[in-house]
Write a structure and sequence with these properties.
Distance between the termini: 20 Å
Low-confidence stretches: none
Number of domains: 1
Order of helices and strands: HHHHH
Strand content: under 5%
Number of strands: 0
Mean pLDDT: 81
Oligomer: single chain
Number of helices: 5
């Protein structure tokens, strides 16, 4: 999903950014709470923050040139978890996303 958002923005991520996006996405999806995503925005953002911490080493070991791309990945994943309905309207089908 994250990579699709990056491609939609017509940017090319480096391998490090793609790996970071995969890490972030897989950590969020692997969280047991995401089996039935919480309706509470704060709870979903807590899952995002935990994934950010776990994937931070991938970001720290990358080129400084990729900083803006990492920020875009962080912002797009946060946007999806913060307001899935709005993200669906902008970025495509998120039919299984919790409704706020």
């Amino acid at each position: 999903m994250i990579l699709a958002l990056l491609l939609f923005a017509q940017v090319t991520p480096s391998d490090a950014v793609a790996g970071y996006a995969d890490c972030l996405s897989s950590r969020i999806n692997a969280d047991p709470a995401m089996i039935d995503p919480p309706a509470d925005v704060a709870a979903r953002l807590a899952i995002h923050d935990a994934a950010l911490k776990l994937c931070a080493p991938k970001r720290k070991s990358a080129r400084p040139d990729d900083a803006a791309m990492f920020d875009k990945v962080d912002a797009s994943t946060r946007k999806v978890l913060e307001d899935p309905v709005s993200a669906e309207q902008v970025d495509g089908d998120l039919s299984d996303a919790p409704k706020p």
